[in-house]
Design brief:
This protein has about 375 residues and is an alpha/beta fold. The protein has 12 helices and 15 strands. Helix content is about 35%, strand content about 15%. The structure holds pyridoxal-5'-phosphate. The site of pyridoxal-5'-phosphate has 12 residues, from α3.
Length: about 375
């Protein structure tokens, strides 16, 4: 039986050609010319003036948090249900993630809960767009303005997505992307920070490269890291970016196919196809089990694997991360919707290389597993 992996990227454009150019010219480090070109083209797609390519999407969040000057004791409001990169970027500088429950409809942060979480120590809101629909951007921006807070937009899953026609990655003070192979465009590992603020962009460039002092090299006034992005990564990224709109169209077609073929299955909550501010871009095709289905997402993953289908559980909640519990963080905090999604949500194969034939097999397997659970 051929196993259908949960994600397989599509690399059959100019990737090989541009990579060969790197080899032929000897430009493989972060100093190579493709890096700047990729930064310019990527930031242009998000209506931003500056792009700073970094080693991965987690690094992009770390650079953004540091560049905004968020430090020990500061509070950053973010969803309880998200990837740990968001919380880690904040706790790494000694700041405190303040969590907000999820909206069961969109799986994004419930914006109506944000205001009650604002204190005198709040410095920023981390707006994360999850699984294919943008968060409620305008409501977040209004609150940020009212309380004078910075906004970091984590657009890692949103290449090519828009909110009321404006590109994701264009909102707030600074936005971040990931180019991991399961994102809409990939560079293997990779990430980018985009912003319109020249000073902030310059801070990001410093932080990316060990905070070398401008006047005298090898003198450093601050602790940082090496978050550099190579010419090889940029070569792949440029080839991928050429096909962004094609990829977005393909993802939406895949989403529609799955919805069409799974919508009558009892026990499954499907992703929303369309909301007034956006059409789902299906970063991955996520499914949530209804309460009465006698299984959690880990069991689903196991049962689907037995049918030859790769799948993944949704993210785990920040307040229930063993590392933060060990540190005595988030004691007695509960976020029922976030907890539900973390236990009952999973996603099925949705990589760009997936064929229609494979999708048909996925549908058959999902229906079979749900059917067996009901008996
Ligand atoms: C993938 C992802 C990241 C992290 O990106 P990496 O490149 O894997 O470090 C951050 N935030 C969100 C929402 C993501 O989906």
């Amino acid at each position: 039986m051929d196993f259908i992996p949960v994600n397989e990227p599509l690399l059959n454009g100019n990737e090989k050609k541009y990579l060969c150019e790197c080899i032929d010219t000897g430009w493989i480090s972060s100093e190579g010319p493709f890096v700047k070109e990729f930064e310019e083209k990527m930031s242009a797609t998000t209506d931003r003036k500056y792009g700073i390519a970094v080693s991965n999407g987690t690094a992009a969040l770390e650079v953004a948090v540091q560049a905004l000057g968020i430090k020990e004791g500061d509070e950053v409001i973010m969803p309880a249900f998200t990837i740990i990169s968001c919380a880690m970027a904040v706790t790494k500088v000694g700041a405190i993630p303040v969590l907000v429950d999820s909206d069961m409809h969109t799986w994004n942060m419930d914006v109506d809960e944000i205001e009650s979480k604002v204190t005198s120590r709040t410095k920023a809101i981390m707006m994360v767009h999850l699984y294919g629909l943008p968060a409620e951007v305008d409501k977040i921006l209004v609150l940020a303005k009212k309380y004078n807070l910075k906004v970091i937009e984590d657009a890692a899953e949103m290449h090519g997505q828009t909110y009321y026609g404006r590109p994701c990655g264009s909102f707030g003070d600074i936005s971040t992307f990931s180019f991991y192979p399961n994102k809409h465009i990939t560079t293997g590992e990779g990430g980018m920070v985009v912003t319109n603020d020249e000073e902030l962009a310059e801070r990001c460039r410093m932080i990316r490269n060990l905070c070398f002092r401008k006047d005298v090299r090898y003198l450093h006034d601050e602790i940082s890291d090496n978050y550099r992005f190579t010419n090889l990564q940029a070569a792949v990224g440029l080839a991928q970016l050429e096909r962004l709109s094609e990829f977005v169209t393909k993802k939406r077609e895949m989403g529609r196919y799955y919805t069409e073929h799974l919508k009558d299955v009892k026990g499954l909550i499907l992703p929303i196809q369309k909301i007034d501010y956006a059409d789902n871009i299906y970063w991955v095709y996520g499914l949530v089990l209804e309460k009465d289905v006698p299984a959690d997402n880990r069991l689903m993953q196991k049962l689907l694997a037995e049918e030859g289908i790769g799948s993944r559980t949704f993210f785990w909640c920040m307040h229930q991360q063993p590392v933060y519990q060990k540190q005595g963080k988030f004691v007695n905090e509960t976020y029922p919707n976030a907890e539900y999604l973390a236990r009952k949500g999973f996603y099925i194969p949705s990589g760009l290389a997936l064929t229609r034939e494979q999708m048909g097999k996925v549908v058959i397997a999902v229906r079979k597993v749900i059917d067996c659970l009901g008996k």
